[in-house]
Fold this sequence. Notes:
Elements: E1 14-16, E2 33-36, E3 43-46, E4 49-51, H1 60-68, E5 72-74, H2 81-95, E6 101-105, H3 109-120, E7 126-130, H4 137-149, E8 154-160, H5 163-171, E9 176-179, H6 189-193, H7 199-212, E10 216-220, H8 226-235, E11 239-242, E12 256-267, E13 273-287, H9 292-299, E14 312-316, H10 321-339, H11 347-350, E15 353-355
Parallel strand pairs: 4-5, 4-11, 5-6, 6-7, 7-8, 8-9, 9-10, 10-11
Antiparallel strand pairs: 1-15, 2-3, 12-13, 13-14
Helix pairs in contact: 2-3, 5-7, 8-10
Bound molecules: guanosine-5'-monophosphate.
Amino acid sequence: MRIYDDIQLDYCDVLLRPKRSRLSSRSEVDIEREYDFKWCPLKIKGTGVMAANMSTTGTFEIAKIMQKYKLFTALHKHYTAEELIKFLKDNKKNFKTNGYIFISSGVSEEDYKKIQKVMKTKLINNICIDVANGYSPYLINYVKKVRAAYPKCLIMAGNVVTGDMTEDLLLNGADIVKVGIGPGSVCTTRKLTGVGRPQFSTVIECSDAAHGVGGMICADGGCTVAGDVCKSFCAGADFIMLGGMLAGHEESAGDVIKRVYITTEVEDTGDEQLKYVLKEKYFKKFYGMSSEYAQDLFYGGLKKYRASEGKLVEIPYRGEIEKTILAILGGVRSAMTYVGAKRIKDMPKCATFYRVNRQLNTVFG
Ligand code: 5GP
């Protein structure tokens, strides 16, 4: 048995050090970059923020808004081939390109058949292949198979947390490796299995490994605020996948739930009496893709040999997603001026981090 003694950090363990810079305004920075991939010959211009391929966030509705800002969406894998084809057709007509969209796949024969059906239409070129444990031989074999069948497609594959496996996936046909095991907001893998790695350290190691062999990474999970997205770009992420930060919006899947509760208020009638009042709060359901809730929804229950590695939560309804997207992009722009990076691609080169004990003042919540 071996123990790695190096300190492993999460986004909350570090802060960016501000630097003297010649950038005087946020409008001087360029948050777009041109992505030039290892295998896929097509180039894409955009900002590497991506909606997670969860059934709550990898939705057609979210994709339509994300692409307006040249941001990406990995559609969840529970859409049927017919639903995907219809959406991709309409989207291509209206938006001219499906370049900001990935279709998702597991590694089963059924998944492959669906990919074949959709790819045959030539409406899409981007495929996200993910399994909870990217160290399984099934993933690498599946990546090889998809690469052989579609030499020019853009393949994102994962999830892993180490440099060696990042390189393996890239050398075997992936363009982007999705990294992160256990950092997700509704993930319980670490609780259940004890497996995982703090995400900030994962991003540093895997991006370094990926860039060394001409590939890229997508930092998947663990961002809770715009500042975490900034830290992730600075740590070397080419793409950043967000679940929880994009959940609970109008465009996220699921109904808005109304909860009525009783609270007390002081009546301002001179002698200040307490009165009971009814108030309403609005929520949306958000759940891990391997939670019992999701397994019930999509597979008719939890299989005996499978454990639930995700949870179900109700989160406050947050209205339209556009506001959240703008706040995230605003945060990135601002961080770039703080660290002196004119282009988003320069963020890692410009960034210096402090290791901190406490990053936020939580006195008012
Ligand atoms: P978040 O942005 O919410 O922190 O993380 C989103 C990521 O959590 C997803 O992209 C996916 O990788 C991961 N995830 C989603 N559902 C589950 C689940 O049920 N179990 C685990 N272990 N991870 C999940």
